[in-house]
Design a protein that fits this description.
With 447 residues, the protein is mainly α. Helices cover 75% and strands 3% of the residues.
C-alpha cells in the first residue's frame, strides 16, 4: 500500500480507465442497449401496450427482461470463479496490467459483436438472439473481470488520506466520459432516423463506438501506470488463488471493521447494482417511456452522479466514511419506496424525480465503498489484487443474488413492480449491519 500519493500524471492516468470502461456501463448496460433489446424482443400495439414480451432461449420461455437479468447473473458467477485464480497469478508475478488488458479487449470485442444482433421479421424474435446474449455475457465478464485489477491499483498509487478523493475523481471521469459518448450516440441516432435509416442501424453503430472508445482510452493507463515492484517471481497455480482468497477471507473475518463493512456492503450493493441494471427496463416497460425520454434521463443521471461523487467525498472528509455511507443508503431506501408508488400511479414526473436521487447517490456510494475498503486493507499489504478479488467476489455474489431474485419475482408474479420490495429489504439490511462499524481509519481527516 502506498504511503504517499504518486505523481499527478500517474493518478490521472489511472482515473482515465474509468473514463474508458464506463461507456460499457452507460451505453450497453443502462441506456441504448436495454432500450434496443427491449424493443426488438417485444411486440406492442399502437399505444405502446405490450402484447408479447417473452422469448425462447435454450428451449425455454422467458420474459425478455428476465432472460437479460439471468444472463448477467451468469456472467457474474463466471467472474467470481476467475477472479481468485487470476488475481493470485497477478500478485505473484506482478502483472496485474496484463490481466486488465485481457479483460478490456474481451469486453470491447463483445460490445462490437452486438452489432450483429438485428431485429426479427414481423414480430418474430431476433434470429441472432443467442449470439446477442453470448456477447452480453462476454462484455459483462470483460468489464467486471477487469475492475478487480483496476481497483487493486488504487492502494498502490494513493495515500490513505487521498483515497476518497482519487476514487471519486475516477468515478466522476467515468460519468463524464461515458456521458460525452452517449450524447454523440444520441445525436447520431437522431440524424440517422431523420434521413431514413432503419431504427436498428444507429444503435448497432453505437455498440461499435463503445468498443473503440473503451480500447482507445484504456491505453492511457496501460502506458503510464506502473506495476508495483515485487520480489522474485514465483510460480502460481490455479488452486493457489483459492488458497489466497481463503487467507484474505480469514484476514477479513479477523478484522472486526472489515467484517462489519463487508457484511453491510454485501446487502446494500445487492440493491445498488440491481437498481442500476433494471432502471431503464423499469421506465420502458412499466411507464411506457420512449427512448427519446429515457436516454436524456439516463444522461442527466450521469451528470448528477458526478456532483454526487464529490458531494459524498466531501461529506466523508468532514464527517467520516460511515456517516457518508449511511446517508447514501437511507436515500436509496427512499428511492425504492418512491419507485413503487411511481409504478403504481404511472407517474412520469415521479420517475424523473427518482432518477435525480439515483444519480445523486449512485456515484457516491460506489466511490465511497471502494475507498472505504482500501482504507481497511492492512498496512504493508502487497497482494492488493487478492484483496480486491475478495471485494470483487463479494460484490458479484451480491449482484447474482440481487438480479436473480428480482428476475425470479418478476417471472413468477404480476411484474417488475413487486420486485422492488426485495430491493428495499437489501438496503435496510445493509444500513442495519453498518451501524456497529467503528474504525479510526474511517474518521474525518479534516484538520
Amino acid at each position: 500500500m502506498s504511503k504517499i500519493t504518486l505523481s499527478k500524471k500517474i493518478v490521472n492516468s489511472w482515473c482515465m480507465y474509468d473514463w474508458a470502461n464506463s461507456v460499457y456501463n452507460l451505453v450497453i448496460c443502462s441506456a441504448i442497449y436495454p432500450i434496443y433489446y427491449e424493443s426488438i424482443t417485444s411486440v406492442k400495439d399502437a399505444d405502446k401496450n405490450i402484447i408479447k414480451d417473452t422469448v425462447m432461449f435454450l428451449g425455454m420461455e422467458f420474459k425478455n427482461t428476465v432472460l437479460s437479468m439471468y444472463a448477467l447473473s451468469f456472467s457474474f458467477l463466471i467472474v467470481c470463479f476467475l477472479s481468485p485464480i487470476l488475481s493470485s497469478i497477478a500478485d505473484t508475478r506482478g502483472n496485474k496490467k496484463s490481466f486488465l488488458k485481457f479483460f478490456c479487449y474481451l469486453g470491447a470485442t463483445a460490445c462490437a459483436g452486438l452489432y450483429f444482433l438485428v431485429p426479427g421479421i414481423s414480430g418474430e424474435q431476433p434470429a441472432m438472439l443467442g449470439w446477442g446474449i453470448f456477447c452480453m455475457v462476454m462484455a459483462s465478464i470483460g468489464f467486471w473481470g477487469g475492475l478487480v485489477f483496476y481497483n487493486s491499483f488504487l492502494p498502490d498509487i494513493a495515500s490513505h488520506d487521498d483515497m476518497d478523493k482519487i476514487s471519486a475523481r475516477g468515478f466522476s471521469l467515468g460519468y463524464l466520459g461515458s456521458s460525452i459518448l452517449l450524447i454523440l450516440c444520441l445525436v447520431f441516432i437522431t440524424i440517422m432516423k431523420n434521413i431514413g435509416y432503419p431504427n436498428s442501424f444507429a444503435p448497432r453503430i453505437c455498440f461499435l463506438a463503445v468498443a473503440v472508445w473503451w480500447v482507445s482510452f484504456a491505453q492511457i493507463l496501460f502506458y503510464n501506470v506502473p506495476e508495483q515492484k515485487i520480489g522474485p517471481r514465483i510460480r502460481a497455480s490455479i488452486f493457489k488463488g483459492f488458497h489466497k482468497l481463503h487467507d484474505v477471507y480469514k484476514n477479513a473475518m479477523a478484522s472486526k471493521s472489515m467484517k462489519i463493512f463487508l457484511s453491510s456492503f454485501f446487502f446494500y450493493n445487492m440493491g445498488v447494482q440491481t437498481v442500476m441494471q433494471v432502471a431503464v427496463y423499469f421506465g420502458a416497460k412499466l411507464l411506457k417511456l420512449p427512448d427519446t425520454k429515457l436516454i436524456p434521463t439516463v444522461l442527466t443521471i450521469q451528470f448528477v452522479a458526478i456532483a454526487g461523487s464529490f458531494l459524498f467525498s466531501y461529506i466523508s472528509k468532514m464527517f467520516g466514511n460511515k456517516l457518508s455511507l449511511s446517508i447514501a443508503i437511507i436515500i436509496w431506501c427512499g428511492v425504492c419506496v418512491s419507485a413503487w408508488f411511481v409504478a403504481e400511479y404511472e407517474s412520469e414526473s415521479g420517475f424523473y424525480m427518482i432518477a435525480f436521487f439515483v444519480g445523486l447517490v449512485m456515484g457516491g456510494i460506489q466511490s465511497l465503498s471502494r475507498a472505504t475498503y482500501s482504507k481497511l486493507i492492512p498496512e504493508g499489504t502487497h497482494d492488493t489484487a487478492s484483496f480486491f478479488s475478495f471485494y470483487d467476489i463479494t460484490e458479484k455474489i451480491a449482484m447474482v443474488i440481487g438480479l436473480f431474485l428480482f428476475a425470479f419475482i418478476e417471472q413468477h408474479s404480476d411484474g417488475m413492480q413487486n420486485s422492488l420490495f426485495a430491493v428495499m429489504i437489501f438496503f435496510i439490511l445493509g444500513f442495519l449491519l453498518l451501524i456497529p462499524l467503528k474504525d479510526n481509519r474511517l474518521k474525518a481527516y479534516k484538520q
